[in-house]
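Take our chain:
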Amino acid sequence: VLTLLHGLFCMNSFFLSVCLDVSAQEQPELFLKKLQQCCFLFDFLDTLSDLKMKEYKRSTLNELVDYVTLSRGYLTEQTYPEVVKMVSCNIFRTLPPSDSNEFDPEEDEPTLEASWPHLQLIYEFFIRFLESQEFQPSVAKKYIDQKFVLQLLELFDSEDPRERDCLKTVLHRIYGKFLGLRAFIRKQINNIFLCFVYETEHFSGVAELLEILGSIINGFALPLKAEHKQFLVKVLLPLHTVRSLSLFHAQLAYCIVQFLEKDPTLTEPVSVPCLLKFWPKTCSQKEVMFLGELEEILDVIEPTQFVKIQELLFKQIARCVSSPHFQVAERALYYWNNEYIMSLIEENSSVILPIMFASLYRISKEHWNPAISALIYNVLKAFMEMNSALFDELAANYKSDRQRERKKDKERDDLWRKLEELELRRGIQNKIVQRLHVSILFSRKEVPWDFGICAHPAIKDVLCEDPVATTYLFFFFFGPL
């Protein structure tokens, strides 16, 4: 079989040059033969096997790419099944298992596909095929169906970023040309994300799928369907909870912003409250990402929606400003460098300034990083210029509150000191009482007793406060009453 295939490749190795010279009627037939020829697969894990045949196939694939790009009239109805068959034979395969416990996408190099010299050309050929002016979706839909799309989506789990980039283009072209597959594609992407969030937390192509979704969301008609709003709430927003957020956060934030640009009313009841709900508690890197995403949301928010979320939002920003991690505090303070956000803050300074003032004033004097202190001084200065009367009132209230707190702290310290002294005193008394109790259990001869101990101040207190101890002492020294 290999010998026969080798002969086929050799016989057709000059297909393109012959094809340009043959009549237009013969070109489609030669094209189909080339497609059939390229269905044979080679083992690229063995780098020394079938080198000539691999090169023949690579050359043939190059010829097919050029032919699809340059020729006209080649897309007959018989061509579609052969193209889909050739593409399916080459790209659809079982991906090697990935040990998610050991592989760190941020640190480790991905495993590159060994057969990429051929796969790259096949993807390029298929993209040119889909983009051709002669391409007819009504004919192709018989072969590019739900099963084909499902297998295509499974390939997004490939570790090779080059393949995922090609798959992104292919899926985007299919979504654009096959209207009947759009709902199915969205549903399957939903399923992939739900499985990723709630089950595996491992899928290599999340960023690429989100990039496709960004353009899909941009094309949604208004008003948004309930299905699309559910997708935002149940699928997109929970993606913020996964550990590998940094790998796809930029694409995710873009999708969220696209939704809010389409329907600004989603800001107050859905997006910002959910984002604050998922706010990271122990990961400063994720906090910085969340702050960046919030700024992107504020860049497109309408003033009427901003008023509804400002209190909830700036309470979180105040906590971030107070963070001992300087990158978190710095990212939060950079909001005051954004002109649009500054205009929103200025319009609502009477609400925002009381929320932020205490944190800003305290951190300006206590933060360990001088750069953060300098940024805070700039923010305080901006607030003072916005509303000087309110600023002075808050400053006076803050100082009086601090004085009351210091007074309470002093009273609390004094109380604890008295309690410690009382505890120490009672400890001494308890030891003396224990000695008295033990002495009674023994005869006078066995345990000598110093009557002068009664003159001790602690003993006097015991005699005054503990009637049982007094009775014991009388019984010990004077006998029963």
Notes: Residues 388-441 form the longest helix (54 residues). The chain has 23 helices and no strands.
